[in-house]
Amino acid sequence: MLSRKIMVAAIAMSSLAAQAQETQFNIIPEPVQITVTGEGTYPIGRNTLVRVSDENLQTSADYLADYMSRYLGIPLQMEKTKRDKRKKTSSVASSDELPGILLVNRNSDNRNSDELSGGYQLEVSQTHGVRIEGNDAAGVFYGIQTLIQMLPTRAGVLPVLPEVKITDYPRFAYRGMHLDVVRHFFPVDFIKKYIDYLALHKLNYFHWHLTDDQAWRIEMKCRPELTEKGSVREGEIFGLYPGKYQPLPYGGYYTHEDVREIVRYAAQRHITIIPEIDIPGHCMAVLATYPQFSTTPDEPKKAALTWGIFNKFNNVLAPKPEVFTFLKDVFSELCDLFPGQYIHVGGDECAKRWWQESEETQLFMREKGLKDEKALQSYFIHYVQEVVNGKGKTLIGWDEILEGGISEDCIIMNWRRPEFGKKALKTGHRMISTCSAWLYFNMKESRTQTEIAPRGPLPLEKVYEFQIAPDSLTAQQQELVWGAQGCLWTEYIPTTWKAEFAIFPRMSALAENVWSPLEKKDWRNFARKVEVQFERYELWGARYSDAFFRTQDIERKR
Ligand code: ACM
How far is it, in rounded angstroms, from Cα 77 to Cα 48? Predict the structure, then answer.
């Protein structure tokens, strides 16, 4: 059994230095600076008052109160928000002296500020209680996450905080997690839970992989057939590929109403959603709905029943006028539905043989002066980019979109080897690292773990030590590294508990890697903190893998 440390509290010590040494903070991701400021303590209880400097912070105050009540059984008191701004400012100033939890946004007017978005300061003092001051509303929210990580990991234990000052801000602006809801579908409630997990780790982008060969999972008012036909496949394989075919129809999709609810839920947690519609390859579900969109319209089509790259089945859009109209319609609707700045076009693993073998496609290429199929792939991506840019948004694509040339304002998601990311940086593109060998959490965590995937292992330490912006990059290239993201492809993840088992604890390692400054990254300290993090997963009711500890045991015995 793992030992169960109760995380909290001041330890009565005679000097601050000794106390600093003895008080263990188990905050993930590790903050920039933690300073123990006194020997006193501040307890949080059912009468603790929460106040906000600005009514826009009320959602965050409610979030904290909900966490305290849901997980620790402590209902906080909420001060009524003042509607009148002037009154409100003076009220906070005068009530500043009251003990309690005070949330302050330094930039409540959303003025352009040089201060780093997401930065915050958290101070605990015996007389004033907790003060969280954010550079912006996101900073206040991250300060709340840090406060949450200073709380006990069990209900029934009184939270007693040491006097401390924490200064913190993120290393990278993009901190993401992806979820494939195509290979297996996850209900709205789980999507919200997943978003909560991101929030608890100070991650700020949720990449939602909505379409692929096996299904189209988002309602399109402009093309209702896409979900009527394309959201259901006839069956699937159970077990590892080639597995055992089960002829059970499998389906599910998200309505516009679902999407709006999820977008709102994410925004309250300072998370932006990036929807992905994967084209021009990975389109078997589209072609099952519209066989005329393929280069082989007379051959029967259906949504894929199994996994892999489909050189064998035609899964590629043909360059026909009706296909471009389709792309314009669906990407326009996607832009209107999602308020975020970014739209993902996929662009990965496009099997070019279908274009090579199609006379009509070859004629189109000659007419347009496209020298090869890579150029045709670029033509598709350019087309979608114009639609997306026309809506004032920015395009993101997997690293293959670089192959036939692409304009500079596209953002590249580097999923293959880091060399492809470097290529993107050299051509002046912003880049997000999702390198599969380090950041695909569908890979098993240890060699002996058979629960989730045939590939791997991808151990916790490898995720932690992944160099998001390696030293070999020039300063200019480093600037273009926007951040990193963990991915969860769900071919072998049919249930929500397996999804949790796959992401935890590796998502926690990613969070520290992408948030904490390099000089604060320390694998041994992180490995120690993971033990407490396991208690948090249990508090949240989340499944997790303990392969890390089992692997350590094996190593110790050797
Ligand atoms: C990918 O894993 N094909 C992006």
Answer: 6
- pLDDT value, residue 491: 93
The residues annotated as belonging to the active site are 212, 282, 349
Rounded Cα gap, residues 513 and 302, in angstroms: 41
Report the C-alpha dihedral over residues 48, 107, 121, 62, rounded to 10 degrees: 30
Q: Where are the beta strands (DSSP E) in 69-110?
A: 77-78, 100-105
Answer for the pair 80, 164: CB distance below 8 angstroms, yes or no: no
> Residue range 306-331: average pLDDT?
91
> From the alpha carbon of 413, which atom of ligand 1 is closest?
4
Other Cβ atoms within 10 Å of 126 Cβ, number: 17
Ligand 1 centre and the CA of 45: distance in Å?
A: 48
Q: What is the DSSP letter of 430?
A: -
Q: Which atom of ligand 1 lies nearest, measured to the CA of 440? A: 2
Q: The dihedral of CA 499, 148, 123, 96: what is its sign?
A: positive
Cα 441 to ligand 1 centroid, rounded to whole Å: 13
Distance (Å) from CA 275 to ligand 1 centroid: 15
Lowest mean pLDDT among 4-13, 68-77, 87-96: 4-13
**Can you give the pTM of this predicted structure?**
0.94
User: Atom 2 in ligand 1: which residue has the minimum CA distance?
Assistant: 415
Radius of gyration over every alpha carbon of the chain, rounded to an integer in angstroms: 25
User: What domains are there in the chain, each with its CATH number?
Assistant: 25-168 (3.30.379.10), 174-521 (3.20.20.80)
**Positive or negative torsion for Cα 289, 293, 297, 301:** negative
Residue 435 CA to ligand 1 centre (angstroms): 10
Taking CA atoms only, the protein residue closest to ligand 1 atom 3 is 348
Q: What would the pLDDT profile of 209-263 be if each residue is shown by its tens digit?
A: 999 999 999 999 999 999 999 999 999 888 877 788 899 999 999 999 999 999 9
CA of 61 to the centre of ligand 1 (A): 38
Q: Which two tokens stand for residue 173?
A: 């602006």
**How does 519-532 read in b/e, with b if 16+ C-beta sit within 10 Å?**
ebbeeeebbebbbb
- Section 447-461 average pLDDT: 83
- Pocket test of ligand 1: the residue of 436, 439, 458, 485 to mutate, having most ligand atoms within 8 Å of its CB, is 436
Q: What is the mean pLDDT of residues 521-534?
A: 96
Q: Under DSSP, is residue 435 helix (H, G, I), strand (E, B) or coil?
A: coil
State which ligand 1 atom lies nearest to the alpha carbon of 346. 4
Which residues are near ligand 1 (CB < 6 Å)?
A: 348-349, 398, 415
Give the DSSP letter of residue 311. Answer: S
